[in-house]
Amino acid sequence: MIKRYFITLFLVVAAISVIYTHQRVNVNSPWTRDGQVSAEIISIAPRVTGPVTKIHVSDNSHVKAGDLLFEIDPSLYVTTRNKMQASLNQAKALLDKAKNEATRAFNLEQRTSGALAELTLNNLRNAVDTAQANVDLAQASLDEATLNVEFTKVYAPTDGFVTNLNLRRGSQVVANSPVFALIDEHSFWIEGYFKETDLVNVAPNDIALVTLLSQQGIVLEGEVESIGYGIAKQDGSTGNNLLPNVNPTFQWIRLAQRIPIKVKLNSKPADIQLRVGMSASIKIIKQPT
Hints:
By secondary structure, this protein is of the alpha+beta class. Strand 11 and strand 12 form a beta hairpin. It has helices at residues 2-28, 75-111, 118-150, and strands at residues 31-38, 41-44, 50-55, 62-63, 68-72, 153-155, 160-163, 172-173, 180-184, 189-195, 207-212, 215-227, 237-238, 244-245, 258-265, 279-285. Belongs to the membrane fusion protein (MFP) (TC 8.A.1) family.
């Protein structure tokens, strides 16, 4: 009988010890399985409209900054540039003519005072200023046309991975409308969502240990880069008939909200390729306070 009580007491003490130890570990080293890999995603969009003539990359391929991605038919923009060049040449010729007429008139006025009316001299000055303004306008139009010709070639803005490329030769692309995504390979981080009760004394630069679901035998070391300052409100959003959506809750239960924490990896093995959306577990080692 005594032995039975002793065993029961031992099991109770052991259970309390395990629960206490587990609680202390969670308090000092909060952990979550609700993490995923994130990265900066750049929307690749052309600056001009036209049909695609050449595609130099394939879906899921790796590119370097400055690599040529695809080309747009430049013929229309080359023609426009040539027209702007002709307009500039014409404007310069008119400017030379206005300057010559003004110079001749001013020389005549210097030799024979009163030979020309003051209004005529003012009109000649204005003609030169107008011609100069037309030259500047034509030069600006030529610069714009030259840029449009250059924009028919779309280059990679950074090192990264081409994603969701459905572009085909002959496809019509529209200026400033994205056609595929480029994932910046230097921008990967881990996003973890921790219960608000676990964030006590968590601070930037705390050590973070990351385990990917696809590489559970490898622990990646990083540090807390930042902690989110807000999440979306669930209750109060507009539902049917413009009425607010309010989730039912029990008065005796208060669910802890989850706050995003951004983890920057210090390094990773060369044989591990991070991919946006991969699942990860994150454990934070709090610094002593």
